[in-house]
Amino acid sequence: MGKLLCDSSSAAVAIEGPSPPPLQLLTWPAPAPPEQTPAPTPAWTSVWALDDQQRRRLLRIWERGVAWKPPRPSCPEDEEKDGDDKDAADADTGAGAVFRLDHAGEVESDGNCLFTAVRKAAAAKAEPRELRHRVVRRFEAVYAAAAAEGSGDRDAVDAAVRHLYAPDLKAGWGVHVVQEVKLLAPKALRPDLDAAVQELVDIGIQREIAAETIYKDRCIAVNDGDSWAKYMAISGSAEDEHDIITLQYTEEGLLTIDENRDGRAAAFGDDIAIECLATEFKREVYVVQAHGADAMVDEDNCVFFLPHRPRGEICDAPIFLFMKGTAWCGAGADHYEPLIATVLPHVTPDKAAVVL
């Protein structure tokens, strides 16, 4: 066999030749840190006119949510849905859910706040004035049906209206400092009313006493369902048929008269209107009412939920409205603001701050 011969001297020369350039290390830029989604900031931190006790409680409710379960099976209309729509309907109206409640901002204090707030909270397309008129039509239908059936509902409604807008001024002073009487003056008759008041003034009667006498004698008292419908239709626009006149009384007698000369006073929403809205939307309406130091309640009880259920079936999750409570409790003095409810998917009802 042949042999492989190696010349050691030539090998040495080869080894002593120029050395190759050093290898360059490959480098990569440091990876950017993952973007962190900032935690949502609850709108309750910026809501004005809340005391510390109210704000703490509302923030706790925001964090842990409100558990709701419908009081009855889902609406028959949901049976027509399929796929994802039906699953969403079942989640909303079948097993219930836990909702986070966010304050959705201020609305104008123009007397139409209930309808403006409901429109935003329910994501409704109808304008506030149209919602007001739908409420009146809904009420008139129910009120007429109660008369036809001869049920006691009509008498109960009349009594509730009188309590709110035509109270007995001989009673109630243990609760109220000021009580209000609402009257409706047809716009077309305002000149005649003014002339009648002036006639009494001309013979020496004090103007406020003269106005009280004429208004109570010639205007429509809001003391039953029919007059309530006329009252609640008033939105403070030029198209209204009536103007609202408000007589304010203390226990000593007449305090002042708001004659509403410009006709811009609107009828404030009340519990009757809220029930009609619930029926119109086929959804419960919860008024989230916050009471502070003036109500002398502890922190765990300074926020409570007032339910208003529809007459008939419930077909969707509730509508939530917010109302700041004060020591003033004159009829129609409440201001409503919208709340937006979103589902908290990973919170169980037993962990919620409030169970409805």
Automatic annotation (TrEMBL):
Membrane-spanning parts: none
UniProt feature, compositional bias: Pro residues: 30-41
Region called Disordered, residue ranges: 15-43, 69-91
Entry protein name: OTU domain-containing protein
Organism whose genome encodes this protein: Brachypodium distachyon
